[in-house]
Amino acid sequence: MIADLARLVSPWDAPLIALEEVDSTNEEVRRRAAAGAPEGLVVVADTQTAGRGRRGHSWHSPPGVGVYLSILLRPNIPAAEAVALPLRAGLAAWSTVASFCVQRGLVPVLKWPNDVLVSGLKVAGILVESTSGKDGLVDVAVVGIGVNVVAHPMPPELEPTATSLQAALGRPVARAEVAARLLDELRRAT
């Protein structure tokens, strides 16, 4: 199932790792960052077994229906400046979703700082995690974004609050197209 996403290219001129399954793309990027991976490393997965959002919430990540990706940044900036990273990532996710919605006259909403809603339902989520070095500068930031792309049965607890691009637009949407556009928007935003 990952073949459609495996052809993606990191716009940072860094490796893009496509995995069938991973616990969390953010965790995989953190592990690779600790091993010296370069800025711009992208990890994309067909499914996550322990995907998560802010405040410890889980992110429903079934195989073949979403875009689950994380990017490694090495900003080397003060923590006060790093607070802009989730906002920039949110704008990139919003812009990506908006580019698909405009054809249907839908206007997505960015619920600051980490949710993108279409018709009041969550279609994308953002999680940015960072660490600081001994000098107090943020030396590693992991930007994770999940986008519900293909319509699929949601768990009962998510049915009232979540949707997919396909369900919102009433037409098929290609995961690879969403992921490629998202990567381009993230590159411009970070």
Our measurement of the CA-to-CA distance between the termini, rounded to an integer number of angstroms, reads: 29 Å
Helical content band: 25-40%
CATH topology, which one? BirA Bifunctional Protein, domain 2
Q: Could you tell me the strand content as a percent range?
A: 25-35%
Structural class by helix and strand composition: alpha+beta
- The pLDDT mean sits at 92
- Domain count: the total is 1
Calculate Rg over CA atoms: 16 Å
- Main sheet, how many strands, which sense, barrel? 8 strands, mixed
Number of strands: 8
Shape: globular
- What is the CATH class designation? Alpha Beta
* CATH H-tier superfamily: Bira Bifunctional Protein, Domain 2
Any low-confidence stretches, pLDDT <50, length ≥5?
none
**What string, H for helix and E for strand, traces the elements in order?**
HEHEEEHHEEEEHH
CATH architecture: 2-Layer Sandwich
Number of helices: 6
